[in-house]
Amino acid sequence: MRRCLLLQPGLVNYDTGLVLQNEARSLVESGRYDGILILLEHPAVVTIGRGGGDENLVAHPAWFQAKGIAVAHTDRGGNVTGHNPGQLVGYPIFNLAKWRQDVHWYVHTLEEAVIRTLARYGLKAGRKAKYTGVWLADDKIAAIGVSVRRWITGHGLALNVANDLALFDAIVPCGISEFGVTSLQKAGAAAALPAVAAALAEEIAALFELEYVQPQGDENQ
Q1: Considering the domain boundaries, does residue 220 fall inside one?
Q2: Cα gap 154→26, rounded to integer Å
Q3: Beta strand 2-11 pairing with 35-41
Q4: Is 219 a domain residue?
Q5: Which residues contact 180 (CB under 8 A, 6 or more apart)?
Q6: Which domain range does residue 130 map to?
Q7: Please, are residues 141 and 182 in contact by the beta-carbon 8 Å criterion?
Q8: Got the DSSP string for 36-103?
Q9: What domain count does the chain have?
Q10: Domain assignment present for 221
Q11: CA distance 116 to 113
Q12: Residue 174 belongs to domain with CATH number
């Protein structure tokens, strides 16, 4: 079994999330843990990945500024997406050398963890040809955008649980205009975010064959 630390810092801004990822990466690079899974929420923010996405901002930049919604360029894969409270964000910082040095397998396994989590709530989710992420019919419920450097992963997934989906009206999510977005709440599932986070952590542990361990030394959860 691989050794993984589970961190749940609550609601933190996007820049703080990047700092947490960098700190986790240092611990994983040092060999202290095989992986660190960070589960959190972000205040409203729109992020743009390496695939671009400025052209997919529907609203004017002044609108985002007036609403207090940050717009951040980041080094994950993919296009534009949004985060806001009520959405579960997962940042697995895993050393794939301890698993499989295969990015496609890694992304597919993250998708499977989300699909199995949703199944616990009676939702039959799946994949859609040509598009990364997890879908309920023609609506995306979870976006996935990762980075991998020296086989250590960064960024991860965003699962809509009970967040305000109006944020996605201001962008073309993932640059995909022909399909919509949804959430567990919109799909009729009575799901509290802490319970969904616990379920997702369990599914990730099962699929990646890992065990969660206590922090070492002066590390805090």
Answers
A1: no
A2: 12
A3: parallel
A4: no
A5: 138, 139, 140
A6: 2-213
A7: yes
A8: EEEEEE-SSEEEEBTTB-GGGB-S-HHHHHHHT-EEEE-SSSSSEEEE-TTEEEEEEEEBGGGS-S-H
A9: 1
A10: no
A11: 5
A12: 3.30.930.10
Q: Is the pTM of this model over 0.85?
A: yes
Residue 36 in contact with residue 93, Cβ under 8 Å? yes
How far apart CA 175 and CA 181 sit, in angstroms, is 12
Contact of 168 with 80, CB cutoff 8 Å: no
* Three-point CA angle 42, 10, 66, nearest 5°: 30
pLDDT digits (tens), the chain, 221 positions: 999 999 999 999 999 999 999 999 999 999 999 999 999 999 999 998 887 777 878 888 888 889 899 888 888 877 888 999 999 999 999 999 999 999 999 999 999 999 999 999 999 999 998 899 999 999 999 999 999 999 999 999 999 999 999 999 888 877 777 889 999 999 999 899 999 999 999 999 999 999 999 887 656 54
Task: Give the bridge partners for 152, in sequence order.
Answer: 95, 149
Residues 171 and 53: their CA atoms lie apart, in Å, by: 9
For residue 160 the two structure tokens come to: 């809509």
Q: Give the per-residue SS3 of 119-165.
A: HCCCCCCEEECCEEEEEECCEEEEEEEEEEECCEEEEEEEEECCCCH
**What does the block give as tokens for 16?**
């703080």
Neighbours of 122 (CB within 10 A): 9
Catalytic residues: 174
Three-state secondary-structure class, residue 9: strand
